Amino acid sequence: xxxxxxxxxxxxxxxxxxxxxxxxxxxxxxxxxxxxxxxxxxxxxxxxxxxxxxxxxxxxxxxxxxxxxxxxxxxxxxxxxxxxxxxxxxxxxxxxxxxxxxxxxxxxxxxxxxxxxxxxxxxxxxxxxxxxxxxxxxxxxxxxxxxxxxxxxxxxxxxxxxxxxx
Length: 166
Prior knowledge:
Layout: E1 2-8, E2 11-17, H1 19-31, E3 35-38, E4 44-54, E5 57-69, H2 78-89, E6 93-98, E7 101-106, E8 109-111, H3 113-121, E9 125-128, E10 131-134, H4 136-146, H5 150-157, H6 159-165
Antiparallel strand pairs: 1-2, 1-5, 3-4, 4-5, 6-7, 7-8, 9-10
Helix pairs in contact: 2-3, 5-6
């Protein structure tokens, strides 16, 4: 879940956004060519300029949508990034129990209990249909940590753009 702040012509509106809604907003913004900037907390700031006619001329106004995760990603150490990469690369990362503690099993690799707890605690991974996957918060935090370019952000969320540029 995200806190959503929209800056528009009438002021500012605040609300909440699910991961699915946030993902939809992000993809729509990228398709329209808006500036999309991931944040270290795992959120995103989307900005653009709205143009409207007023008084015989065009008026340009800044607009933005800021999505802030309810649970921030926390510090992405090398160990956390490595664990996220294991989950992301695995076609079948599964929750498992080892010694009475929850771990993530990804093929022949296992992510230990401590790291598994951290990933779940910061909402960087979730279980969906019996599998473990990265959340949108995790993807955005990783992009911010890498200092991803606007092109890299677009390629991450719009596969059709990555295929065209390849």
